[in-house]
């Protein structure tokens, strides 16, 4: 079963995080990058928790995958691709490629999930 609502919610969540963290590529100092990332992620996670409290159908704990092997397979493929990129050390690889490889398994498996409770 495909859950479009939860899959889109997860996709938009990762797209917003990518858009907010994209300025990391132009900031030269690692200290400023870490402070910026921590502040942004704390604010964003707080807003997500408040939204999920009002809409429990979007909580991750309320969803179960319909294809149990999918997330594991995607994590293994993403990890292998990340290792290949790191071994090759291609200079054209930037933040968005790393981020997409990390986020893809979670987003794709979110589409292939179902709600634990029938009343959502």
Automatic annotation (TrEMBL):
This is Membrane protein. Keywords: Membrane, Plasmid, Transmembrane, Transmembrane helix. It comes from the Bacteria. The chain crosses the membrane at residues 7-24, 30-48, 69-89, 95-114. The lineage of its organism: Bacteria, Bacillati, Bacillota, Bacilli, Lactobacillales.
């Amino acid at each position: 079963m495909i859950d479009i609502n939860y899959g889109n919610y997860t996709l938009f969540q990762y797209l917003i995080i990518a858009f907010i963290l994209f300025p990391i590529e132009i900031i030269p100092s690692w200290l400023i990058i870490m402070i910026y990332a921590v502040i942004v992620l704390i604010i964003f996670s707080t807003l997500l928790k408040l939204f999920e409290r009002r809409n429990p159908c979007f909580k991750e704990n309320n969803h179960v995958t319909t294809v149990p092997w999918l997330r594991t397979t995607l994590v293994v493929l993403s990890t292998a691709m990340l290792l290949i990129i790191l071994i090759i050390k291609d200079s054209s690889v930037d933040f968005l490629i790393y981020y997409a490889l990390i986020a893809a398994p979670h987003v794709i498996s979110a589409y292939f999930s179902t709600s634990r409770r029938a009343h959502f």
